[in-house]
Design brief:
The protein has an eight-stranded mixed beta sheet with strand order 1-5-6-11-10-9-7-8. A five-stranded mixed beta sheet has the order 13-12-14-15-16, with helices on both faces. Strands 2-4-3 form a three-stranded antiparallel beta sheet. By secondary structure, it is α+β, with helices and mostly antiparallel strands. The protein folds into two domains: 14-168 and 228-316, BirA Bifunctional Protein, domain 2; 324-419, Anticodon-binding domain (Rossmann fold), CATH 3.40.50. It has helices spanning 14-33, 47-55, 59-64, 83-92, 137-154, 169-183, 192-200, 211-216, 229-244, 289-292, 307-316, 339-351, 365-375, 385-389, 408-419, and strands spanning 37-38, 44-46, 67-69, 75-78, 102-111, 123-132, 160-165, 250-251, 265-270, 279-285, 300-306, 329-334, 356-358, 379-384, 392-397, 403-407. The protein is built from 15 helices and 16 strands. Helices cover 39% and strands 20% of the residues. Helix 1 packs antiparallel against helix 5 and helix 5 runs parallel beside helix 9 (229-244). The model has no long low-confidence stretch (mean pLDDT 90).
């Protein structure tokens, strides 16, 4: 019996991986021009980090984490999201002493034990940014602009930005009291989890996916109506910053992110057409998270992008990627004594930075050309005995079949010129 991959994960094969690499290249280029530096954190952390940071009553921590003991009995968890781990690194490496704000980004896999469906997997990948040390709404707007520019560079159409504010602990307490008063007479209609949340973390009622609970909460109070003057002013200033950047948005008063650490600004980028999970990027402000995890009081804001969901949205719109294979060269050797010469040609191309490969088995011309066709290369260099005697090679364009003979000294400059 063959061993198969577990449910909810997938292999990224070479033809698909080139699309991922292109997307990651866009990420790195954008992050560079916005002044962000890459950070790489471990795939697993002590479970306590996510309990304290993400929230014990969130679905992520309560239901979805891959948690296991190590050989000393300490509880470890595969990271279910990226922010908590970056915050831990910020604290552990004393980044509060760096020039502020500290601007970081990451790309990597996350893990949640969830029901697999379109756009949702048990191993999934995220690109995210985090900014520490600045509470100004201008930073919130910059983060949102970076996120939208990411989709713009990829060519994605039909996306919309939704914004809201979940307030600070002070206004959240007032909102929580109003929410509990509203829902308490309807407790019998809540699911078992929400009945527990009502007493331990009422805000998580708004994150429930059960249709019955969602129906009961349709007319429930919303955080935007309970913002204190400071939070209301911050949200108004954010809208002015977005206006200055020509960013259109919708205010969604029901927008509550599924993590406890958010304070103030929250936002999501939506795209219809990728199934029930139509948020392809989201984030917000988390001004208390660093302190919650044991660091000094430090404001923070960031976002995370689902890479799989973004690729699905691009596919849905028929948006392609540059095909790296099309820039390749395949070197064909014809006749006895040409294999070694073909090897030297291949190596010269590679040292010049041109993607090149060849046949290693000494097969016939027709078979080698079929190999080149199957690989999707754009050019074939034919090394034959007669061409070698003249110091030349034959150069064939695979798309048209046109073939010319060029001096070996001209081969690399010509290929470079065509690539440009």
């Amino acid at each position: 019996m063959r061993v198969k991959k577990p449910r909810g994960v997938f292999d990224i094969l070479p033809d698909k991986l080139e699309k991922w690499q292109h997307l990651e290249g866009v990420v790195r280029d954008l992050a560079h021009v916005y002044g962000y530096r890459e950070i790489r954190t471990p795939i697993f952390e002590f479970t306590e980090l996510f309990q304290r940071g993400v929230g014990e009553e969130t679905d992520i921590v309560a239901k979805e984490m891959y948690t296991f003991p190590d050989r000393r009995g300490r509880s470890l968890s595969l990271r279910p999201e990226g922010t908590a781990a970056v915050v831990r690194a910020f604290i552990e490496h004393n980044m509060h002493a760096w020039p502020q704000p500290v601007k970081l980004y990451y790309i990597g896999p996350m893990f949640r034990y969830d029901r697999p469906q379109a756009g949702r997997y048990r191993q999934f990948h995220q690109f995210g940014v985090e900014v520490f040390g600045c509470a100004e709404p201008a930073v919130d707007a910059e983060v949102i602009k970076l996120l939208l520019q990411f989709y713009e560079v990829l060519g994605l159409k039909g996306i919309s930005l939704e914004i809201s504010s979940v307030g600070c602990p002070k206004c959240r307490n007032e909102f929580t009291d109003a929410l509990v008063s509203y829902i308490r007479p309807q407790t019998a209609g809540l699911c078992k989890d929400c009945r527990n949340r009502l007493h331990r973390n009422p805000l998580r009622l708004l994150d429930c996916k059960e249709p019955g609970c969602r129906g009961l909460l349709t007319e429930a109070p919303v955080p935007l109506n309970y913002l204190c003057p400071v939070c209301a002013a911050h949200f108004a200033a954010l809208r002015n910053e977005l206006l200055a950047l020509n960013i259109s948005y919708n205010i969604n008063p029901h927008l509550v992110r599924g993590l406890d650490y958010y304070t103030g600004t929250s936002f999501e980028v939506m795209h219809a057409g990728i199934g029930a999970q139509n948020a392809i990027g989201a984030g917000g402000r988390y001004d208390n998270l660093v302190q919650t995890c044991g660091g000094p009081p430090t404001p923070g804001v960031g976002f995370a992008v689902g890479i799989e969901r973004t690729l699905m949205a691009l596919q849905d719109q028929g948006i392609g990627f540059p095909d790296a294979a099309q820039e390749g060269v395949f070197v064909v050797s014809v006749g006895e004594g040409t294999l070694r010469h073909a090897l030297r040609v291949v190596q010269a191309l590679r040292e010049a930075g041109i993607r090149a490969d060849r046949d290693y088995a000494g097969r016939g011309l027709k078979t080698q050309l079929k190999q080149a066709h199957r690989r999707g290369v754009k050019w074939v260099v034919i090394v034959g005995e007669e061409e070698i005697s003249r110091g030349n090679v034959a150069l064939r364009a695979m798309d048209t079949g046109e073939q010319i003979e060029v001096n070996e000294s001209e081969l690399i400059p010509r290929l470079r010129a065509w690539r440009a």
